[in-house]
Specification:
The chain is of the alpha/beta class. It has one domain (3-210): Vaccinia Virus protein VP39 (Rossmann fold, 3-Layer(aba) Sandwich), CATH 3.40.50. The protein contains eight helices and seven strands, in the order αααβαβαββαβααββ. It has a seven-stranded mixed beta sheet, sandwiched between helices. The protein is globular and about 45 Å long. The termini are far apart.
């Protein structure tokens, strides 16, 4: 699936994107993710990949000094601009997380929410994260997964997804905590945290540090 196709897939419902996401995974899981993010240390100069409408960008604003919030979708970025225009510390721009325009060792932190499981080449994206991070910088990943869910809950999740999004992108992956941690380690990160979040629906929460 090409970049343009991926962009169009997630750009179809910009006005209902947040509502669709909450319907599919549930507000309980989103609240649990935010609770984890609230425990993050100060993040310094931060870049976010897959910011979408700016939902998580706004929830962690007290954690970073400055944020470059990026996405592939022009339509979602327009929603993010409206949501975040009151924050002078946030810059919003279009970027491909597998091939960015940034110089090496530019950022203290990289934040990636609800993205790595739908990227065509997760390894390449994580290599790019490693490249643009300063030594000692951290990568924070939150990604939805059906790993660890009960069979019936998986079925219900799938039905909800099909109802609002249609057929998922062909590169969608189901990561276990061990699988995602292993990829980070192969890239060169030290995994400092790796856990499942949620009850009926799940998300992976992983923090890696650039050695």
């Amino acid at each position: 699936m090409g970049i343009e196709i991926i962009e169009k897939y997630w750009s179809r419902f910009p006005d209902t994107y947040d509502k669709n996401q909450e319907y599919v995974v549930g507000k309980e899981l989103l609240d649990a993710i935010i609770k984890e993010l609230n425990d993050l240390p100060e993040l310094g100069e931060t870049i976010e990949f897959g910011c979408g409408t700016g939902y998580f960008t706004e929830t962690i604003i007290q954690k970073y000094k400055n944020m470059v919030a990026t996405d592939l979708s022009d339509d979602l970025l327009e929603i993010a601009k409206k949501r975040l225009n009151k924050y002078s510390e946030i810059t919003i721009q279009k970027e491909n997380c597998m091939d960015t325009s940034f110089t090496s060792e530019k950022f203290d932190s990289v934040f990636m929410a609800n993205l790595i499981h739908v990227i065509e080449n997760p390894f390449k994206a994580l290599q790019e994260c490693y490249r643009i991070l300063k030594d000692g910088g951290i990568l924070i990943i939150v990604t939805f997964t059906s790993y660890g869910m009960k069979f019936m809950e998986k079925m219900k999740l799938g039905i909800r997804f099909l109802k609002v999004w249609g057929k998922p992108p062909q590169h969608t992956k189901i990561f276990s905590p061990e699988e995602l941690a292993s990829i980070l380690e192969d890239v060169g990160f030290t995994v400092e945290k790796s856990k499942l979040i949620g009850n009926r629906t799940k998300a992976l929460y992983v923090i890696g540090k650039k050695n």
